[in-house]
Structure formats: C-alpha cells, structure tokens
Amino acid sequence: MTISCAIEWDGKAWWWSTDMRLLSYDMRPHPPSRFRAKQCCSCGDLVLRSAKYIQVERWRDCANEIEERICGDEVPLASWFVCESCAPIFVKLHDMNVDVDLGNCNFHDLLGEFEALYGPSVGFKLKLPTYQSGGIWV
C-alpha cells in the first residue's frame, strides 16, 4: 500500500474511531478451555493475554430496514486491534493526518515509505511517541 491523500473504497464503506489508549488484553476465554488471541490489523501478529493494544471500533451503514430497526443509523462491526509494536506508528501517522487503510496496510512498511518520501535526508527517521501511564502519547 502506498501513501495517498485519500482512501479508495468500493461502496462497502465502513468507518472507525479510537481513543488511542493502550489497553491490556485480559479478556477471559470462552469457552473456558480455549483462549482466543486477537490479530493485529496491521502486522498480523497475535495480541495475547496481558499484551497491550489499541482498540479500533468500527461501524457501517445499514444494509436494509431490519438492520436499521435493530441498530439505528449505524451497524457495529467487530473491533480491530493494533498491537503494541504498531501502536506508536499508528498514533504518529494519525496525528500527522496520514490516511491509513486499516486492514490493508502494514504500518511498519507505511512508516518506511513515509520516511523515504518525505524525509529531509537519506536515513531520516520519525520520532515515534511513547505511551505514558496517564493515558497519553508523548
């Protein structure tokens, strides 16, 4: 995926929102004999119990009247996860208003492409934020 000023879509639009806070994945397994890890929507790594992640809530438009009666204007979709490794890149690109195509781009690759295209010199590296315990990125 290359950097662009807009995301192309095929009519099956959905949108997302997040508060950019790192959460600890402590969901209880269900059924109790099995643990379900979540997959990072960027790199594909598994987010295991007690790992840190950013939750990305997603919605789409209603497809018919029944969905509209049940859900209202927006149909909630399953949340996606951004792993602790990809989170600082996600936050930095989001703060710089770089559009990311969630689920279709690797943030590490996108960061490298951004640095190569927009860096003032060869070998330029963006300073990525660090997460503070108060829930803010610095």
Folded structure, characterized:
By secondary structure, this protein is of the alpha+beta class. It has one domain (14-130). It has 3 helices and 8 strands. Strands 1, 2, 5 and 6 form a 4-stranded antiparallel beta sheet that branches. The longest helix is centred in the C-terminal third of the chain and has 12 residues, at 107-118. The protein is globular.
Distance between the termini: 27 Å
Q: Based on Cα principal axes, name the global outline.
A: globular
Give the integer mean of the pLDDT values: 86
Main beta sheet strand tally, sense and closure: 4 strands, antiparallel
Number of contiguous helices:
3
DSSP strand content = 15-25%
Number of domains: 1
What's the helical proportion of residues? 10-25%
Succession of helices and strands: EEEEEHEHHEE
How many strands?
8
Secondary structure class reads: alpha+beta
Instruction: Extract low-pLDDT stretches.
Output: none
What's the alpha carbon Rg, rounded to whole Å? Answer: 17 Å
Question: What is this structure's SSE topology?
Answer:
Blueprint: E1 14-17, E2 23-24, E3 38-39, E4 46-47, E5 52-61, H1 65-71, E6 74-83, H2 87-95, H3 107-118, E7 131-132, E8 136-137
Antiparallel strand pairs: 1-5, 2-5, 3-4, 5-6, 7-8
Key features of this structure:
8 strands, globular, alpha+beta, 20% helix, four-stranded antiparallel sheet
